[in-house]
């Protein structure tokens, strides 16, 4: 995608459609010295001002991806902050919240300081989650949020991330740490983000599948929906006990959506997110993608996918975030031999493609070519391509407004007096997703060959 950053002192964006969570409106946007100084129609021009004719373009706030893994430090062969921030920027994401499972993990004040130092002068605003697998990590977290001298550093920390089962980085927290983490996060008034899978249930599922043919699709059976649902139920009980703000990461199951919907109605402080790969792919995509479709939690059936879209429509699901988790193509393919396809690491990239894929759905063009082909073969049956109730304004709600509030990011959006953090998007531009043309260091994408709609043509980011 072609895209450039502005460096003009005074800029007038004329006739674009400004998209905010409360709706769309055609107006001009005046930016002076990196600040939005005017919104409306017929704003005056001055000598030396750059004029952008934005007719036909969408003017949106720079998006927030509240769940990414940029792999630095320690795993720079997979990705770096520089490479992945370039991918985010190209995809209209100007703020990211990065997870702690690096090498070393972000479980100390010193480790957080190192990440903040590394993130200076990047194209995007990076915030970071703290991690905890031992009690003394929680002492470090308390120091971060209570020591007055650390105020600038804690402004870059958006909460605590807990892994309730093993995933990439082996950051699973033991039960005692989990309970104390919920208590501490309630005390500090910060969200605890949970990767919700049940260790014992996953282990039992794996034992029950021993001796089965090691097809890659078995990965979804080894981490069954019931595992996520049980873990969410336990996390909700802790949130209720301590009064903690629980945020459920990468929700993937119908049962999970139902539990969170009921918990919200009962008054428990809980929010959640869903990833594009769970919204747009199912277990049927293993056939084409093989190990490139392996992630945690795994792909689910269409029944679960439909429930996720229903959760977006009724407000149960608060955010869409990518769980951008690059591995090298060699790692994905070399480890997955015919004898052991499940050896491939879990995780897929996605920060650069999120906006265009969501815009495709909002425009009524389902982007998954496998489902389109399948529909073509079965068009005389009652099967239909998904057409969820979803609009462009929902993208702003799910990828800016809600994550901004949940994680106290502090962005002001498109209002007068706010720092300019805008993206200009051509909503009619069609393009084909190709891994080699994306900016992520890994050079591949699970959406290879998909036709997407919407291109970021300019970023105005002070």
Summarize the structure.
The protein has helices spanning 81-90, 109-118, 135-146, 151-154, 175-188, 199-208, 218-222, 225-242, 254-266, 276-280, 286-289, 302-313, 329-335, 354-362, 369-377, 392-406, and strands spanning 4-5, 10-20, 23-32, 35-40, 50-53, 58-61, 63-68, 93-98, 125-131, 157-163, 192-195, 246-248, 270-274, 319-320, 421-432, 451-461. The chain has 462 residues and is an alpha/beta fold. A hairpin with a 2-residue loop joins strand 3 and strand 4 (35-40).
- Distance N terminus to C terminus? 21 Å
Calculate Rg over CA atoms.
Answer: 22 Å
Helix-strand makeup class:
alpha/beta
* CATH class wording: Alpha Beta
CATH architecture: Alpha-Beta Barrel
- In total, the number of strands is 16
CATH fold topology: TIM Barrel
> How many helices?
16
Q: How is the main sheet built?
A: 8 strands, mixed
Overall mean pLDDT stands at 92
Helical residues, percent:
25-40%
**Low-confidence spans:** 1-7, 377-383
Number of domains: 1
Fold and architecture overview:
By secondary structure, this protein is α/β, with parallel strands linked by helices. The chain has one domain (61-413, 427-454): Metal-dependent hydrolases (TIM Barrel, Alpha-Beta Barrel). The chain is 34% helix and 22% strand. It has helices at 81-90, 109-118, 135-146, 151-154, 175-188, 199-208, 218-222, 225-242, 254-266, 276-280, 286-289, 302-313, 329-335, 354-362, 369-377, 392-406, and strands at 4-5, 10-20, 23-32, 35-40, 50-53, 58-61, 63-68, 93-98, 125-131, 157-163, 192-195, 246-248, 270-274, 319-320, 421-432, 451-461. Helix 8 (225-242) packs parallel to helix 9 and helix 9 runs parallel beside helix 12.
């Amino acid at each position: 995608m072609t895209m450039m950053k502005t460096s003009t002192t005074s800029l007038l964006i004329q006739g674009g459609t400004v998209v905010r969570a409360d709706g769309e409106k055609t107006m001009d946007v005046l930016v002076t010295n990196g600040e939005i100084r005017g919104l409306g129609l017929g704003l005056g021009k001055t000598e030396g001002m750059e004029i952008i004719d934005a007719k036909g373009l969408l003017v949106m706030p720079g998006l927030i991806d509240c769940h990414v893994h940029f792999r630095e430090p320690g795993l720079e062969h997979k990705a770096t902050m520089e490479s992945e921030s370039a991918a985010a920027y190209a995809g209209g994401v100007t703020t990211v919240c990065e997870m702690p499972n690096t090498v070393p993990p972000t479980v100390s004040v010193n480790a957080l300081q190192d990440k903040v130092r590394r993130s200076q002068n990047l194209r995007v605003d990076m915030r970071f989650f703290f991690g905890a697998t031992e009690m003394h990590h929680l002492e470090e977290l308390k120091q971060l949020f209570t020591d007055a001298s650390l105020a600038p550093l804690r402004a870059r920390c958006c909460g605590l991330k807990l892994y309730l089962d093993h995933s990439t980085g082996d950051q699973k927290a033991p039960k005692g740490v989990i309970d104390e983490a919920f208590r501490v996060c309630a005390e500090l008034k910060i969200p605890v983000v949970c990767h919700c899978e049940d260790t014992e249930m996953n282990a039992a599922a794996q034992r029950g599948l021993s001796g089965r043919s090691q097809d890659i699709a078995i990965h979804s059976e080894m981490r069954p929906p019931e595992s996520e649902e049980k873990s969410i139920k336990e996390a909700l009980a802790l949130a209720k006990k301590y009064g903690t703000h629980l945020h459920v990461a990468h929700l993937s199951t119908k049962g999970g959506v139902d539990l969170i919907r009921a918990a919200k109605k009962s008054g428990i402080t809980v929010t959640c997110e869903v990833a594009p790969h769970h919204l747009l792919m199912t277990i049927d995509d293993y056939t084409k993608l093989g190990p490139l479709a392996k992630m945690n939690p795994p792909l689910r059936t269409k029944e679960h996918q439909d429930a996720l879209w229903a959760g977006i429509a009724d407000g149960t699901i608060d955010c869409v975030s990518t769980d951008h988790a690059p591995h090298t193509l060699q790692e994905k393919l070399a480890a997955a031999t015919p004898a052991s396809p499940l050896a491939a690491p879990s995780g897929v990239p996605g920060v650069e493609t999120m906006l265009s894929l969501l815009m495709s759905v909002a425009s009524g063009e389902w982007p998954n070519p496998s489902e389109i082909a399948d529909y073509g073969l079965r068009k005389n049956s009652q099967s239909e391509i998904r057409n969820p109730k979803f609009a462009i304004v929902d993208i702003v709600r799910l990828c800016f407004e809600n994550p901004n509030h949940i994680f106290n990011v502090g962005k002001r959006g498109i209002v007068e007096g706010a720092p300019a953090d805008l993206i200009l998007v051509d909503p009619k531009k069609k393009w084909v997703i190709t891994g080699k043309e994306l900016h992520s260091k890994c050079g591949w994408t699970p959406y290879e060959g998909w036709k997407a709609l919407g291109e970021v043509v300019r970023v105005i980011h002070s």
